[in-house]
Specification:
Elements (H helix, E strand, L loop, with lengths): L4 H5 L6 H11 L1 H19 L36 H37 L1 H16 L2 H12 L3 H28 L2 H8 L4 H37 L11 H8 L8 H28 L1 H4 L11 E2 L15 E12 L2 E13 L4 E5 L6 H8 L8 E10 L2 E2 L5 H7 L4 E4 L3 H4 L6 H10 L6 H14 L5 H4 L9 H13 L5 E5 L7 H18 L2 E6 L2 H7 L2 E6 L2 E7 H6 L4 H8 L7 H13 L1 H6 L1
Parallel strand pairs: 1-5, 4-9, 4-10, 7-8, 8-9
Antiparallel strand pairs: 2-3, 2-5, 5-6, 10-11
Bound molecules: adenosine-5'-triphosphate (ATP) and nickel (II) ion (NI).
Pfam families: ABC_tran, BPD_transp_1
Main location: membrane
GO cellular component, one term: plasma membrane
Length: 601
């Protein structure tokens, strides 16, 4: 698959605001809605200066003129008033009332939601039960009751509609606020001494704003409809003033003799509401950051690969894994942003290669590219080749690639708690890993799972197999992760920081286990870490990664003894317990003595 054309031509660094606008315009329905609204809006703004007849002047002689009658493009109503003039003036009133009600409901409802969600506890309970009571009434009935109490009239209809819509805002905003109020950045703001109001205004509100805008854009259409409903029943606009609902109500009596009197305002209501709604949906899609980043668009099973990537020969003969000139990155609204560039690696059977670099240097993206596991969208492999033996993974069919996952190349991830299913016993999960690639009976599978758990050093494996992930310690969970990786006898294991979440002693034992397994099964191990101590412990060779590129590679001992790149030296300097004692401290001193020379390297 290749890059969509509009993304290819787009220069990077385009402003976020502009790209939101583009996203909105890419949605045809939303764009059409916007165009319709702009046209209607302009007509309404121009109403006072347009050469229209007075909407309220009756002319009994001209009653019920049909559409396209002389002097009356949309005909006249039962009192001889010009329909076009009444339509435009009426739409003005309806829209103004609808938007005013939306604004009032948004301000009050959001304030309630913010306070309830932020305060929590009893305040939340009290406020939300009040909101629940409002919601328990059918809302048009509630609006009717409010207008009945206040008396008919446009302003009262406006209040009634605003009140019945407050719950929508309050509930939406409260839900989001509730999640935000317990997040670390809010705690941090509180700890920094900000008052509650300041925290709400500067930390919470900006994050809630999109929700408010979305709710507004999706309810504004309804509010116009509700205004029309109340006016239709005679509770809103009072004669002779026109609004869309009252025009509809007055036209009802002539529905059969002069249908245009009710159809014209009806069409206008339809047009207004539907364009508001499609525009609202478009705005919602653009504002939702999850939709924008493509996280909610279901990622494909395999990373998208450029159709026009170059051809690269595998590196050293007999490599288990050979990555050539890999360029993987992410498609965003601003274009393709590479995360790794021209990465080449070779991994021999039975060898352990350490891939080291600081956070964000592109280690995981490299590792995930191997089996096409970078989620697309937005992930995209733009160039390079990845050979398993002498077969190019990127040229494999999807089915073959998916079949190779776990059976030829297996992954071990950093935190097994997130990759293990919380609701299944671990034994069953190992069985599932076996069942994904091997056909065997249930009993046999169970035996094999227990054997694997024993192999990775889970004591009492047979009993432990019935335990759930949360009943295991972090080290044991990682052992289960390793057992699952071993389940189908892969040739290559890619371990992405498998020990980072563990304490030093457990880490040492897991490393020992990995090394033993690797020797015993002649596994090729690609070991990702940011800790040179770990590399020294287990890897034969090491590749140092920085900003998406490999800056240095060589046998571990050699790189440790004489790092060529300043960045490598700095990474090594981060490891105090390499067993180098004085020499090590000397090296740090040396580094600090020559900051200038280092900067030049
Ligand atoms: N889904 C994504 N969308 C956009 N950019 C991404 C995405 N995932 C990763 N990146 C970018 O790719 C780059 C490399 O990330 P990667 O996860 O490979 O780093 P890493 O070296 O594994 O770091 P760590 O040690 O923290 O795991 C980062 O700059 C990151 O911002
Ligand atoms: Ni990573």
């Amino acid at each position: 698959m290749s890059v969509p054309v509009e993304l290819q031509v787009e220069p990077a660094g385009i402003s976020a605001r502009l790209s939101s606008w583009r996203l909105l315009m890419n949605n045809r329905l939303a764009a059409a809605g916007l165009v319709a609204l702009v046209l209607i809006g302009m007509a309404m703004l121009l109403v006072p200066v347009l050469p229209l007849a007075d909407p309220d002047v009756t002319a009994p002689a001209d009653r019920l003129k049909p559409v396209l009658a002389a002097g009356h493009p949309l005909g006249t109503d039962q009192l001889g008033r010009d329909m076009l003039s009444r339509l435009l003036w009426g739409a003005r009133v309806s829209v103004a009332v609808g938007f005013a009600a939306t604004l009032i409901a948004a301000v009050i409802g959001s304030a309630i939601g913010l306070v309830a969600g932020y305060a929590g506890g009893r305040t939340d309970n009290l406020m939300m039960r009040g909101i629940d009571m409002l919601m328990a009434f059918p809302y048009i009935l509630l609006a009717l009751a409010i207008v009945a109490a206040l008396g008919p009239g446009l302003m009262n209809a406006l209040y009634a509609i605003a009140v019945v819509n407050i719950p929508f805002f309050a509930r939406n905003v409260r839900g989001v606020t509730l999640g935000l109020a317990r997040r670390e950045f809010v705690d941090a703001a509180r700890l920094s001494g900000k008052g509650h109001l300041a925290v709400l205004a500067t930390e919470v509100l900006p994050n809630v704003l999109p929700v408010i805008v979305i709710t507004m854009s999706t309810t504004a259409g309804w509010m116009i409809l509700e205004t029309a409903g109340l006016s239709f029943l005679g509770l809103g606009a009072q004669p002779p003033q026109a609004d869309l609902g009252s025009m509809l109500g007055e036209g009802r009596a002539q529905l059969f003799t002069a249908p245009h009197v009710s159809i014209v305002p009806g069409l206008m209501i339809f047009l207004l509401v539907i364009s508001l709604n499609v525009l609202g949906d478009g705005i919602r899609d653009v504002l939702d950051p999850r939709l924008r980043s493509g996280a909610l668009a279901r990622p494909g099973p395999v990373t998208d690969i450029a159709a026009d990537r170059g051809s690269f020969e595998p590196g050293a003969r007999g490599s288990a894994l050979s990555i050539r000139n890999l360029e993987t990155g992410f498609l965003s609204a601003g274009g393709f942003v590479p995360a790794v560039r021209s990465v080449s690696l070779d991994l021999a059977p039975g060898e352990c290669l350490g891939l080291i670099g600081e956070s964000g240097s592109g280690k995981s993206v490299t590792a995930l590219s191997v089996m096409g596991l970078v989620a697309s969208p937005p992930g995209f492999i733009r160039d390079g080749a990845i050979y398993l033996g002498d077969e190019d993974v990127l040229a494999m069919s999807q089915t073959r690639l998916i079949a190779s996952r776990g059976s030829r190349v297996a992954y071990i991830f950093q935190d097994p708690l997130t990759s293990l299913h919380p609701m299944y016993p671990i034994g069953r999960q190992v069985e599932e890993a076996i069942g994904a690639h091997q056909r065997m009976g249930r009993g046999e599978r169970r035996e094999k799972a227990v054997a694997l758990l024993e192999k990775v050093g889970i004591p009492d494996a047979r009993d432990r197999a019935a335990h759930y992930p949360h009943q295991l310690s972090g080290g044991q969970r990682q052992r289960v992760g390793i057992a699952m990786a071993l389940a189908n006898d892969p040739d290559i294991i890619i371990a992405d920081e498998p020990t980072t979440a563990l304490d030093v002693t457990v880490q040492a034992r897991i490393l020992e286990l990995l090394r033993d397994l690797q020797r015993e099964r002649n596994l090729a191990l690609l070991f990702i870490t940011h800790d040179f101590g770990v590399v020294a412990e287990i890897c034969d060779r090491v590749a140092v990664m920085r900003d998406g590129e490999i800056v240095e590679t060589g046998p571990t001992g050699k790189v440790l003894a004489s790092p060529q790149h300043a960045y490598t030296r700095r990474l090594i300097a981060c490891v105090p317990e390499l067993g180098l004692g004085d020499t090590f401290l000397d090296r740090i001193e040396h580094l600090f003595k020559q900051p200038k020379a280092e900067a030049q390297t």
